[in-house]
Design a protein that fits this description.
The protein is α/β, with parallel strands linked by helices and about 290 residues long. The protein contains 13 helices and ten strands. The protein has two domains: about 10-225, Phosphoenolpyruvate-binding domains (TIM Barrel, Alpha-Beta Barrel); about 230-285, no CATH class.
């Protein structure tokens, strides 16, 4: 299956018509049309209407469109899910997923739509294996809610997020164990370009597929960091080509550029090329 690029995942407030319209023109790989944190209680109904109209109208091209509903225990969740079912986004993002039971309840309400789960509480971190095993409920992506995780755990995000690294790494490991994507949390200071880039690089080093964003200005640098480099792509093509030679058919290990590469490297190479190809198509579509 072709990997979907989720390098840049932009939150868009659901009660802002201009923002929702602009979303169709941005170079983000995925969009989260938000009904939760960015929308005041008195605006929930209007945001639900606007998001429904926006998703139904389409025109998003290759961009994945997700709707973040309100939490399962809130007064708005049932109507949010009903709207999403009718609008048919690519996925529903469920906040505050802490247990496999939460995921099962969301899956029942989603009635077959793909789910993304927000991991943003200490209980969620402790239950990652349980949540991951429930991936049969059409779970495809873990989205880390670092702001809430900091609040709930009383950790500090200062000093390069050193206190959060164990939790972030556990999210990545759970995602890889169960075949899911893992998207890093937001960077709050949109004026701090150096800090944002450093956090993107850290997320990539930890194994994240991409990062959630709060402003369009963050899209281009985020895409750049999380895209395979030219050297990565050249290496990947070389590995695919060497294993494709007739004399290497069936071999588990072959020589490439003076080094031994295994079938596991072939899997890595195919993933890199898949992301690079999809990212290039996204760029071409945005330019057009």
């Amino acid at each position: 299956m072709t990997a979907k690029p989720r390098r840049s995942v932009l939150y868009m407030p659901g009660d802002k018509p201009r923002a929702l319209e602009k979303a169709r023109t941005l170079a983000a790989d995925a969009l989260i049309l938000d009904l939760e944190d960015s929308v005041a209680p008195e605006q929930k109904a209007e945001a639900r209407r606007l998001i429904s109209e926006t998703v139904r109208a389409g025109g998003f091209g290759r961009r994945e469109v997700t709707i973040r509903v309100n939490g399962l225990g809130t007064p708005w969740a049932e109507e949010d899910f009903a709207m999403a079912l009718a609008a048919k986004p690519d996925a529903i993002l469920v906040p505050k997923v802490a247990t496999a039971d939460d995921l099962a309840k969301a899956a029942a309400m989603a009635n077959g739509l793909s789910l993304w789960a927000m991991i943003e509480t200490p209980l969620a971190i402790l239950n990652l294996a349980e949540i991951g095993r429930a991936a049969a409920h059409r779970l495809t992506c873990l989205v880390i809610g670092t702001n809430d995780l900091v609040k709930e755990s009383r950790m500090s995000a200062a000093g390069g997020r050193f206190a959060l690294v164990p939790a972030l790494s556990q999210c990545v490991l759970a995602a890889r164990a169960f075949g899911l994507s893992c998207v890093d949390g937001v960077f709050n200071d949109i004026t701090n370009e150096a800090g944002f880039l450093a956090e993107c690089e850290q997320g990539k080093a930890l194994g994240m597929d991409g990062k959630t964003l709060i402003h369009p200005s963050q899209i281009a640098p985020c895409n750049s960091v999380f895209s395979p480099s030219a050297d990565d792509v050249a290496w990947a093509r070389g590995v695919v080509d060497v294993f494709a030679k007739p004399e290497n058919a069936g071999k588990g290990v072959v020589a490439h550029e003076g080094r031994m590469v295994e079938r596991l490297h072939l899997d890595m190479a195919k993933h890199i090329l898949s992301i690079a190809e999809a990212a290039a198509e996204t760029v071409a579509e945005t330019v057009l």
